[in-house]
Every structure is written in C-alpha cells, then in structure tokens.
Design brief:
Number of helices: 6
Helix content: over 70%
Structural class: mainly alpha
Distance between the termini: 41 Å
Strand content: under 5%
Radius of gyration: 22 Å
Number of strands: 0
Shape: elongated
Largest sheet: none
Number of domains: 1
Length: about 160
C-alpha cells in the first residue's frame, strides 16, 4: 500500500491540473459575465420575501399574505434573471466540455487515475466506478469553490 502512495501517476496530476484550469477559466468567465454584488442583493431580496411569505402563511394573516403576493411577480423576475446569469457560463462551456470529456473518456477509459484511501482505484458505486470521473469531480469541486471565493463570486460570509 505504501508503494502505491509513493508513486503518483502522471494521469492523477494531469487531471488535477486540468480541473484547476477548467475551474479557473469558468470562474473568471463567470466573474466577467455576472455582477456578484447584484446577485447578492437579489438573493437577499428573494430570501426576505420568502421569509415574509412563510411568516404570513404561518400566522394566517391574509392581509399581509395578500401584500406579499403582490410582489411575487417581481420576485419571479429576479429569480429568472439570476438563472439567466448562471446559464450564460453553462452555455459558453457546454460544448467544449463535452468534447474534452469525449477525449478524456477515450484516453483514460481503462486507466487508473487515482487511488482513493481505503478503497483503491475504483469506487464500489454502480453509476461511475471509474476513478477518472470521481477524481475529476473531487478536484473540480475543490478548485471551483476556491476560485469562486478568490474571484468574489461567492462570499465567505454567506
């Protein structure tokens, strides 16, 4: 077991760096195409509206509920704008990522990418037993979170 941990496969490092590269490019694009301050303000407004609506329903206050429901159209529009902002980046990167994954799948289909502690090179899961997918997902989540905070897309205080 120690011998395996001492030898890091080139494919492990390659996928780690690829996940970092893709995450930094998507985070930068997200930062350039969206306004994080505006998104934060919209999230706050939507959250406040949801809280007020829940309280009005819980208390059974029909007048307050009617007042809150008058703002529903505006809230739905804000939610739609927020969804469009997140979809912009997805639409830009969807086809290139599909092409990259076709290449990766063909190149590393029978390769061991990473060894998972206590489990080995394959995970005993029926959907994606290949370490390629799991290693990329782990690396991508790590870098996606880090770069989202670095570029101010997501604030730590949220």
């Amino acid at each position: 077991m120690l011998e395996i941990l001492q030898i890091i496969p080139n494919s492990t490092i390659f996928m780690f760096l690829l996940a970092a590269l893709i995450s930094i490019v998507t985070s930068l694009t997200n930062r350039l195409l969206t306004n994080p301050e505006q998104s934060k303000a919209w999230r706050k407004e939507i959250s406040e509206w949801n809280t007020e609506m829940r309280q009005a329903r819980k208390e059974g206050d029909k007048k307050r509920l009617e007042k809150v429901m008058k703002k529903q159209k505006q809230i739905l529009q804000l939610q739609s704008k927020m969804m469009w902002q997140s979809m912009k980046v997805t639409l830009i990167f969807f086809v290139p990522l599909i092409i990259i994954w076709q290449f990766l799948g063909a190149t590393f289909s029978n390769s061991v990418i990473a060894y998972f502690p206590g489990v080995g090179p394959t995970l005993p899961l029926p959907i994606f037993p290949n370490s390629l997918i799991w290693w990329y997902l782990l690396c991508s989540m790590l870098f996606g979170t880090v770069f989202s905070h670095v570029f101010g897309i997501i604030e730590v205080s949220e």
